[in-house]
Hints:
Layout: E1 3-8, H1 12-15, H2 18-29, E2 33-38, H3 41-50, E3 57-58, E4 61-62, H4 66-90, E5 95-98, E6 106-110, H5 113-116, E7 120-125, H6 127-135, E8 139-142, E9 145-147, E10 153-155, H7 158-168, E11 173-177, E12 184-185, E13 188-189, E14 192-194, H8 195-203, H9 211-223, E15 228-232, E16 240-243
Parallel strand pairs: 1-2, 1-11, 2-8, 5-8, 11-15, 14-16
Antiparallel strand pairs: 3-4, 6-7, 9-10, 12-13, 15-16
Helix pairs in contact: 3-4, 7-9
Amino acid sequence: MGKIVVxxxxxxxxNLTTGFFNQIKDWQASGHEVIIVHGGGYYISEMMNRLNIPxxxxxxxxxxxxxxxxxxxxVLIGQVQPTITTLFQQQGFSTIGLNASCGxxxxxxxxxxxxLGFVGEITEINPAAIENVLAKQYIPIVAxxxxxxxxxxxxxxxxxxxxxxAEAIDAEALYLLTxxxxxxxxxxxxxxxxxxxxxxxxxxxxxxGGMIPKVDSAVDSLENGVKKVHITNCIEVAGTIITKEAxxx
Length: 249
């Protein structure tokens, strides 16, 4: 059976409900392999505010100075990831937390150091780092950090990381969890849309704000081999399914 990648937010209590874990169990029971990618922006901002370090966002990306990068690493690997792995383990799952230093899992390069600091664009994913964990019957739980060829750590977008990982391992499905049940059009949640329809909905300003980078990442992954992407607020519900082309039942 296929692989399923799930991107969750950093606030574990928002996503990791009984229903969430039951769905993971159902997927595993039917032979699917599950990979989790987590965010952590809320806790990073909270820690920066606590330390009186300004939080600056440009073009939807967190400006990441050297100091902000250290905090990002500390929060993602030292706080958010252990919290999520522990919650999974309490539900009987075997998990391993992964980050950029694990077999150069997420490789990248600086986008624009003068403007954004150490914010990275993902250039390559090492699928072997994921496959090795799956082969041991563990769920990989991945922090969204990258690393350059010369060993510089990078802050990378969690949605993009999930999409690139899904591409690299030829995932059957990708779930991008958000705070709404999907894409809304004329007061109705859309069940299915194609890449072509995504562009039309963006042009009509139906897809706006923070949903734009999410669907752009989804489109990129579909164009690179992922079968379908779900935009939803809980994995038990399909939400809006995005596919490359129309699917006729």
